[in-house]
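Re-run with default settings, no changes from the original entry. Doing this only to confirm the output is reproducible before filing.
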Amino acid sequence: MPPKTITKKPVQVLLAPKHLLLTGKILTAISPLIASRFAARLFLTPFKYKIPEREKEMDQKSVQETLTVPSINREIVTYNYGQSNKKILLIHGWSGSGTQMAVIAKRLVEQGYSVVSFDAPAHAKAPGKISMMPFFIESIHHLEKLYGPFHAAIGHSLGGMSILKAVKDGLQINKLVIIGTANSVTHITKEFAQNMKLNEKVAIKMKAYFDSKFGEDMDNYSGAVSAEGVKTPTLVIHDEDDIDVHVSSAHEIATKLENNQLLITKGLGHRKILGDSEVINKLATFIAV
């Protein structure tokens, strides 16, 4: 008998309750407009999950505090890990947490850095029901005022897009690392709709709704758009088998960066890459040099 084919699924599909997928499918058949509003709400609602075993050490050993970010009037939970004046900022991805990069954080602390990370609004321990990329960006700027300056920053997925935009807008760091970071917001909404069993018409209406709601083209937040204004030395890391964010995003972003290194891995996907020893060796060396 031939071996079974293991179907890999994006994290959105894995975490989304089945009844939400069914609701979206029904609404799409009834009205793409109604489905797009349902999808927009779902798009802004991060999924929460039990803290994995590999993250518990950082969770237990870090100093945690709930803070309000004044510019958005939302609360975040901060994690201060390690004792050093040389600080690294970590920014998790969508539906992630401040301990998502715990393996990376432990290595950095062992090398003499201290780490600052956070649960973005409505993520993990932070209160709230909805979140969005501007909340991540404003949280980054607020943490810079409280704990900066930072020697370097590492962003995963949406966290990578957020830190690119923050640096473009003036955040000063010496080194930047982005991992599994998407480029186009339009592409993200289309993939989200597809993952949630919605069609492209719904995705287009959802993107238009966001543009109208926030008063600007949300593609202004795309990775490659932000990268054009970033002069900071940047390491772009992505896996060929990432099914959440296609590897083409890494190449599109890298071509827009003035000073970049590109590391393409294989077989690690979107999340396993955060604990890979070779990846961590590479980023630790990059930050230190």
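Residues 131 and 286 are 31 Å apart (CA to CA). The first helix runs from residue 11 to 15.
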